[in-house]
Amino acid sequence: MTLWSYVVIAVRDELRAIAAQARESKLLLVAFLACLGGVVAYLDPFPDRNITIATAYPNSDWHQYGELAVRYLDAKGLHGAVVTTSGAAENIDRLVDPADPVNAAFAYGLALSDAQRKEVVSLGSISYDPVWIFHRTDRIAVLKDLRALAGHRVGLGPVRSGSYLIGKMLLAGYGIDVAQGGNFVPDGFPEGEKGLLEGRLDAFILVASVTEPIVQKLMRSPGIGLYAFENAAAFEKKFNSFDAVTLPAGSLDIYPPVPARDVSLVTTTTSVVVKRTMHPDMQLALLVSIKEMNRSSDDLFFSRRNEFPAYVDPLIPISPVASKFYDYGPPTIMRYLPFWIAGFFDRAWVLLLTLIAIFYPLSKLNLHLRRLRFIVEERPHYQELLEIDELLSSRKLTDEEKDAIWKRLDGINLHAVRAGVPVGEESHYFEMLNAIYLLRRKIELH
Which of 128, 199, 331, 373 is 20 to 30 A away from residue 321, measured at CA? Predict the structure, then answer.
């Protein structure tokens, strides 16, 4: 017999003993299966693989981000999709709607209400999005103060967009109520751009990244000026979701330079927001996709490479998955296994270590279930052999009693032959046969 064949036989006998023990201890088996099922249900290793991202209007920067993220997700075996919306506020409305398939969205912390912040979590920010205030220089030659907008027709973007809500908040800081007067116009972003270029609007406010097509076009349009936040640092101190940045002269075009001079801006960040109930493995897959997207991006402007994703907007509570991701990075095992298997092991390793810590010391007890069951099954027959030996030693037996005992010994012998012997327990088997032989000899000599 080879070592391998011995191991195979030993494992087979151990499994047979376990199966027999399970049949006898049905309650224990049910309890074990219930615990196993509970652990699996708690860890939830089989998530829904659909990620639907709410973005903004078609061809916007957010829509382009969403399309790029979907390509990374599809490469991981997930099913990504993007939906177009009017902006940040509508994105969150759809995200918190239990009946809506949207489970991820782009948003600004400043655009969320307190009630909405309790129902979503942030995976972090992915880009700086300045507040762009464009104006026609033939209507407003120099815009020195936002209070000057009160007497002009100003586009603000859709009502359920982050641009509208953030613009409304900024103007309110100057005592301007956009709901009064009728000169502040909520409309779609393409309509706002067209209205400004065609003269129906005097100014246009939007919050977007520097890669936004509307921003790129208006920055290069003759007769369109850009408001410079001379007190940008004050906004940074007043609102913890704002940062002060500078758009350097010539940073969009070297010659002729666009912009013609340095422009101080205030910027917030685009946050990736998900439902609180989104599966942890799906959150992790989306985070990794965003990180890969930012690492390979050629459109970095205000940010440094590998700066994003990062949790920089405290208005939206961070997801525990994202918090762990930023502290320790993605699980190393994700390099070798599919995301859902890697995510399961990343969440289960503590439990696995606990089980090992419990069962390893128990294994040192050398219970050897196959040997234990063999001894337990053979014990009644040894008991019967002892009773026969006691009977033979107590008195003289009749021939009929000897015949009856002989038949009992034959029955025990037949059972020993048919019951099977686990590997490693052969010596116990022959000890029983020897005991039967000795009793037979004792009967013959009685």
Answer: 128
Please report, for the chain, the start and end positions of each structural domain, with discontinuous segments joined by +: 50-126+270-346, 127-269, 369-445
Residue 192 CA to residue 198 CA, distance in Å, equals 10
114's enclosing H/E stretch is helix 114-117
Q: What pLDDT was estimated at residue 386?
A: 87
Cα–Cα dist 409/384, whole Å? 9
Query: Following DSSP, what letter does each residue of 168-220 receive, concatenated?
Result: HHHHHTTT--TTSSS-EE---HHHHHHHHHHTS-SEEEEE--TT-HHHHHHHT
Cα separations in angstroms, 404 against 400, 409, 410:
6, 9, 10
Question: How far from each other are the two terminal CA atoms of the chain, in whole angstroms?
Answer: 43
Instruction: Provide the pairing of β-strand 104-107 with 79-83.
Output: unpaired
- Residue 221 CA to chain centroid, in angstroms? 44
Look at the block and give the residue holding tokens 């100057």.
174
Q: Are 258 and 250 in contact (CB under 8 A)?
A: yes
Q: How many CB atoms lie within 10 A of CB 285?
A: 27
Nearest to 156 by CA among 130, 192, 182: 192
Looking at CATH, the fold of the domain delimited by 127-269 is given as: D-Maltodextrin-Binding Protein; domain 2 (3.40.190)
**Pair of tokens at residue 90:** 């509508």
Neighbouring CB atoms inside 10 A of 6's CB total 12
Q: Residue 67 — very low, low, confident or very high, per pLDDT cuts 50/70/90?
A: very high
pLDDT digits (tens, 9 = 90+) for 339-373: 767 777 777 777 667 766 765 565 555 456 666 66
Strands 154-155 and 120-136 turn out to be unpaired
Give me the phi and psi of 160, to 5 degrees please: -95, 30
Domains 50-126+270-346 and 127-269 share a fold: yes
Q: Is the dihedral of CA 119, 124, 127, 130 positive or negative?
A: positive
**β-pairing verdict for 104-107 and 154-155:** unpaired
Higher pLDDT, residue 43 or 321? 321
Looking at residue 186, its amino acid is P
What is residue 124's three-state secondary structure?
strand
pTM for this predicted structure: 0.71
Contact 309, 294 (CB under 8 A): yes
CA 368 vs CA 6, 363, 419, 428: distances in Å: 16, 9, 18, 15
Please tell me what DSSP assigns to residue 300.
-
- The arrangement of secondary structure in 50-126+270-346, i.e. its CATH architecture, is 3-Layer(aba) Sandwich (3.40)
